[in-house]
Amino acid sequence: MLKIQIEEASKRFQYEWIFKNLNLSLQSGDRLAVTGSNGSGKSTLLKCLSGSIPLTSGKITYSLDSQAISDSDWFKSLAIVAPYMELPEEFSLGELLDFHFKFKNPKNDLSKEKMIEILYLDQHIHKPVAQFSSGMKQRVKLGLALFSDVPLVFLDEPTSNLDKKGVSWYLDLIEAYSAEQILLICSNEPREFEFCQQKISLEDYK
Asked: Who's near 182: CB < 8 A, 6+ residues apart?
């Protein structure tokens, strides 16, 4: 079981506090929605929690089965979907899946063919990702994260570029492939996090 403990976490850029004195405790199976107006710092919080940028003050600890995980190794336990993360567009879809799953194990022994079928991209396995539409790329991002056998998934605006059918597909994907994981979703769209048991607003931590 993965546990994340967040104690008095605060982040400042120059003279502006993005969030202050945030305390949270998360463990496997928890689903947390982080809401807040555009520019409120949702993505910054996610980056701090993933270890890509440091806190100004406070502490974040990860532990797996009661064993502490060094912050330099947090990335092994997580997957991220975010608008600012780009896919390597020179790869074909098949090559991208092969590359990604050199670093992560696939969940439930999913085959590459099954993943592509779930993504509704059967006809595009050999097409360069550069030629994908924005919606196709978003489905790939979500699939890479949720097909990965990791205990923690961060989703930042997960249905951006998805149409109504794509949103329904996303909700089905969450239901089928996120059991026992910690899910943290940064969003202002209730449809993206309606299944979360916990919600916080970053405006409460200014």
From this structure: 2, 4, 26, 27, 28, 29, 30, 31, 32, 151, 152, 153
What is the C-alpha to C-alpha distance for residues 9 and 178, in angstroms, rounded to an integer?
26
- pLDDT (tens digit per residue) in 159-186: 999 999 999 999 999 999 999 999 999 9
pTM, 2 dp? 0.94
pLDDT digit string, tens, across residues 61-88: 999 999 999 999 999 999 999 999 999 9
What the block records as the tokens of 72 is 């330099």
Quick check: 35 pLDDT over 90?
yes
Task: State the fold for domain 29-53+71-199.
Answer: Rossmann fold (3.40.50)
Q: What is the DSSP letter of 153?
A: E
**Nearest 5°: phi and psi at 103?**
-110, -20
Q: Any bridge partners for residue 10, and if so which?
A: 57
| Closest of 90, 157, 177 to residue 128, by C-alpha | 90
C-alpha to C-alpha distance for 179 and 181, rounded to whole angstroms: 6
Alpha helix (H) residue ranges in the chain:
42-50, 93-100, 112-118, 134-146, 164-177, 190-193
C-alpha span between 206 and 203 (Å, rounded): 6
Measure CA of the first residue to CA of the last residue in the chain; give whole Å. Answer: 31
At residue 109, the pLDDT reads 84
